[in-house]
Design goal:
Layout: H1 4-30, E1 40-46, E2 50-52, E3 55-57, E4 61-68, H2 72-96, H3 99-102, H4 110-126, H5 131-188, H6 197-213, E5 216-220, E6 226-230, E7 236-239, E8 242-243, E9 245-250, E10 258-264, E11 267-270, H7 278-315, E12 329-330, H8 363-366, E13 368-369, H9 371-375, H10 399-410, E14 411-414, E15 417-420, H11 424-464, H12 468-503
Antiparallel strand pairs: 1-4, 2-3, 5-6, 6-7, 7-8, 9-10, 10-11, 12-13, 14-15
Helix pairs in contact: 1-12, 2-6, 2-7, 2-11, 4-5, 4-10, 4-11, 5-6, 5-7, 6-7, 7-10, 7-11
Length: 505
């Protein structure tokens, strides 16, 4: 049977194993507040037995590996939902920042300014020969235009800010994917990839950061390496030890704003419209859809008001009773090059088979009151056509002024173009209300996603997180094992001393 020396080695293995396991517990306790840290467990097993006289004798205990406790399914779910939450949160923040301006329902808001403009025609109809009322009407029109242009400019500023964010976010994405690819190499370069606990935890933390920036799909290879693509599947970001970079390029089709491309082994794939989640997806959506969508509504609204007012104003007569066929507003129709002044032609655009849908982009910024009317308010056509046999409009006639005032309730515009019979007050109220509704919807979506991320994080922590009560219990158990091994060595030592004392004389 094994001698006393073998007993010492058995006891020593116990001391070393318990001490190593205690170090693992201590490391867990030290990292109790470290994000993305996975709890580690010491894998102890008995050492190989010796055979002597047909009997198996144990040789102690050894530490096989230190295993990180992870749940791959929860990690992948957390990446997906983190990207969705980040995207919805940034969308909410982006729209909520300008909602007080776009959704202003006070006397200084765009709805009140448009109403005041049409009320100016109503006031002029009561006293069509009053020059001060004519001047006041010009002022109200200019105030309305200034209000529209102010809101449009705010939206344009936000689009430019989002565009700057796109460039910065793409740079951050590239930095993270490079680091993740390097960690993939670290993990797969060892015979036992699962034991690279620090590298796994670092990669988990970096991948979660990446998910906050852009929507991703993550799959895990046979040796633990991550394969990462955009959540749309349009392009790969990481393939094992290789990362693929995104790039940004000014694009004329986007008005000079940045296009995002994925560069995969010499192949360039446009992915601007394929990125939906994460901060990058949110900024692209805000820039290209949300902010631009409200600009389109403002342009369409301006086109509707301009076209209908000009059409009606052109039918009336100025204070001199003879001047007619004059536009109230002037200005280009933005990038709709086929239409020039008079802007009344805009009314026919929805029925134009060559334009689907009509494009009024730039209408707000091009809009202005006819300079001739500004210089001479008497040219405002408040009177209706002369009654034959008269060849001039009757002094004090208010027929056209009443018709122009009535446009507030009979002519309007929506996102599809000019729609006669729709009240401008209804259209503007719908625009103002849609901003508030969108903010509430995005806020609710963000809250829902936050709750889902929190729930998934709690599930992950229940599996991979450090529980101090569990670690304390493990520490006591290991401490007792260490003390018992030490006591065992003491007993063997005493036996050896007794043996030396007895037979050494």
């Amino acid at each position: 049977m094994p001698g006393l020396n073998a007993g010492l080695y058995v006891g020593l293995s116990g001391l070393q194993a318990q001490q190593s396991a205690l170090n693992v517990v201590g490391n867990n306790i030290s990292n109790v507040n470290t994000p993305s840290y996975s709890r580690q467990v010491a894998d102890l097993s008995s050492s190989q037995s010796l055979i002597q006289g047909g009997v198996y004798f144990g040789t102690g205990v050894g530490l096989n590996t230190v295993q990180g406790i992870r749940n791959q399914f929860l990690d992948l779910q957390l990446y997906n939902e983190t990207a969705k939450h980040s995207g919805s949160s940034d969308r909410y923040a982006g729209l909520n920042a300008i909602a007080p301006v776009l959704g202003d329902s006070s006397s200084s808001g765009i709805a009140a300014q448009i109403q005041a403009f049409f009320q100016g025609f109503q006031a002029l109809a009561a006293q069509p020969e009053d020059s001060s009322l004519r001047t006041n009407l010009i002022g109200r029109a200019q105030t309305m235009i200034t209000g529209l242009q102010s809101q449009y400019r705010i939206l344009e500023d936000q689009r430019n800010t989002a565009d700057l964010s796109v460039k910065n976010l793409v740079s951050q994405v590239n930095n993270l994917t490079s680091q993740i690819a390097q960690l993939n190499q670290t993990i797969t370069s060892t015979p036992t990839p699962a034991t690279q606990n620090d590298a796994w935890d670092q990669r988990t933390a970096l991948t979660k950061q990446l998910a906050q920036l852009v929507g991703i799909n993550v799959t895990q290879g046979s040796r633990g390496e991550y394969q990462i693509t955009l959540d749309s599947g349009a392009a790969a970001l990481v393939n094992g030890n290789t990362s693929y970079q995104l790039s940004t390029t000014p694009d004329a089709a986007l008005g000079g704003l940045l296009r995002v491309d994925a560069n995969m082994g010499g192949i360039t794939v446009p992915v601007t419209s394929k990125i939906a989640n994460g901060s990058l997806g949110a900024q692209l959506d805000l820039r290209d859809n949300i902010y631009a969508g409200y600009q389109t509504q403002l342009d369409t609204l301006a086109a509707g008001i301009t076209s209908q007012v000009n059409l009606q104003h052109r039918q009336g007569y100025a204070l001199d009773g003879t001047t007619t066929n004059t536009d109230f507003f002037q200005g280009g129709i933005g990038n709709y090059a086929a239409t020039n002044l008079p802007l009344g032609q805009v009314a026919g655009l929805p029925n134009d088979p060559t334009i689907t849908p009509p494009n009024y982009r730039g209408m707000v910024n091009a809009l202005a009151v006819n300079a001739a009317l500004v210089a001479n308010p008497n040219l405002i056509a408040a009177a209706g056509p002369p009654t034959p046999p008269a060849v001039t409009a009757a002094p004090g006639d208010n027929t056209n002024a009443n018709a122009l005032a009535g446009l507030q309730f009979t002519g309007g515009a929506n996102a599809a173009g000019v729609v006669l019979g729709s009240s401008y007050s209804t259209v503007v109220s719908s625009f103002v209300g849609s901003v508030g509704t969108a903010v509430q919807s995005l806020n609710a979506q963000s809250t829902t996603q936050q709750n889902l991320v929190t729930a998934l994080q709690s599930q992950r922590d229940s599996v991979s997180g450090v529980d101090l009560n569990e670690e304390a219990a493990s520490m006591m158990t290991l401490q007792q094992g260490y003390q018992a091994s030490a006591r065992f060595i003491t007993v063997i030592n005493q036996m050896m001393q007794q043996l030396v004392t007895t037979f050494g004389q």
